[in-house]
Amino acid sequence: MKYLISFPSKAMIVPDGEWEAVVHDSHAVIEEAKAAGVYVFGGGIDEAVPPVLVSADGTFSAGGYPWAPPLNGGFTVLELPSREEAVAWAARIAKACRCQQELRVFGFDPAS
């Protein structure tokens, strides 16, 4: 099963002088996930580029859904055999990033 581990940008409250350690620690956890063969993909939303809402007819407008909270922050998708292991990996990522992580089952479509 695949799991989405994520956090919104506002969750990242890192004290001055700790950013370098956060970058190092978070990259180390991802390297561990890759070495363990559980890493699928990950990244973060580029908040410097505003979203565009595209309709089925191809028309588009600036901004995302007006009724939804903004989508931002970072995420990682891991393939793991159990929810317990997903919680353990989410805890490792939370420790590295110095912020809580939200864990969800990722609805992967193998036909995609």
Tell me what you see in this structure:
By secondary structure, the protein is α+β, with helices and mostly antiparallel strands. The model has no long low-confidence stretch (mean pLDDT 95). Helix 1 (19-36) runs antiparallel to helix 2. It has one domain (2-105): Dimeric alpha+beta barrel (Alpha-Beta Plaits), CATH 3.30.70.1060. It is globular and about 45 Å long. It has helices at residues 19-36, 83-97; strands spanning 2-7, 39-44, 52-54, 60-62, 74-79, 102-105. Strand 3 (52-54) and strand 4 (60-62) form a beta hairpin. Helix content is 29%, strand content 25%. The strands form two sheets. A four-stranded antiparallel β-sheet has the order 2-5-1-6, covered by helices on one side. Strands 3-4 form a two-stranded antiparallel sheet.
Using brief descriptors, characterize the structure shown.
4-stranded antiparallel sheet, 112 residues, 2 helices, two-stranded antiparallel sheet, Alpha-Beta Plaits, alpha+beta
